[in-house]
DNA sequence: AATATAGTTATCCATATGGCTAAGTATATG
DNA sequence: CATATACTTAGCCATATGGATAACTATATT
């Protein structure tokens, strides 16, 4: 638990569900109301709302209500944090792979 | 559920836990045995093993047993799939942001 | 004013998750 | 051979998750 980033628990959990990923994807092409977002999902509204709550409390989306309509939009930051974490991890083992490649290369050239 | 990638359910779920992320991080600096991996985690071994099973069944790590010792290593592919998904989503709304910026810019220049 | 619309709240339910202890198996080591 | 080591398996438990229905609130519409 070296450099534990609590936000990642919540972000990765949010992304672990296909309904929620679909919502993120949909919001990529612009704001949408709760009903609009719900349409493609074969699920009762309260069930769907729970997914929106997971996304919003996790900071991946935000929403505002005008009259009786709630409109949602994406919040870029958290996705970026998740991507950065993965990217850094990959950088580490890619670094290792590179060093290993160099090592193999050195062995090879020493044999000449 | 347009372009639903089932692997992502499993990968993001695996990454949603700090213990599992720590294991991924640790394996970034090379192979390790189950006991070695378990040391930093204040948890009974069977509990810890469950995390390894989540990682392995999700394809994020693999392991082989020699004698009574099981050694684990990272499998790059799944992390890459997860990073790619996020990256593509970001590209979409960054594209939008860019178009919006252009639009605003055009409005501004029309005012000249 | 009456009705339709768009969420929201309150429960409920089955299953999954993340932790535990106790006991078992297989391989080293003394 | 006896014992220690390194997992494994089996079961238990509390809480979280993802779904549902029923009833409610607050705005539009007619």
TrEMBL record, chains A, B:
<dbReference type="InterPro" id="IPR036390">
    <property type="entry name" value="WH_DNA-bd_sf"/>
</dbReference>
<dbReference type="InterPro" id="IPR001845">
    <property type="entry name" value="HTH_ArsR_DNA-bd_dom"/>
</dbReference>
<dbReference type="GO" id="GO:0003700">
    <property type="term" value="F:DNA-binding transcription factor activity"/>
</dbReference>
<dbReference type="Pfam" id="PF12840">
    <property type="entry name" value="HTH_20"/>
</dbReference>
<feature type="domain" description="HTH arsR-type">
    <location>
        <begin position="1"/>
        <end position="96"/>
    </location>
</feature>
<protein>
    <submittedName>
        <fullName>Helix-turn-helix transcriptional regulator</fullName>
    </submittedName>
</protein>
<dbReference type="InterPro" id="IPR011991">
    <property type="entry name" value="ArsR-like_HTH"/>
</dbReference>
<dbReference type="InterPro" id="IPR036388">
    <property type="entry name" value="WH-like_DNA-bd_sf"/>
</dbReference>
């Amino acid at each position: 638990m070296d450099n534990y980033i609590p936000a990642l628990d919540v972000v990765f959990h949010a992304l672990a569900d296909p309904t929620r990923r679909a919502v993120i994807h949909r919001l990529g092409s612009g704001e949408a109301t709760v009903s609009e977002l719900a349409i493609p999902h074969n699920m009762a509204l309260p069930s769907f709302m729970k997914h929106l709550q997971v996304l919003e409390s996790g900071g991946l989306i935000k929403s505002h209500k005008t009259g009786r309509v709630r409109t949602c939009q994406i919040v870029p930051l958290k996705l970026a944090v998740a991507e950065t974490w993965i990217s850094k991890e990959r950088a580490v083992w890619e670094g290792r792979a590179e060093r290993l490649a160099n090592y193999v290369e050195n062995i090879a050239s020493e044999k000449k």
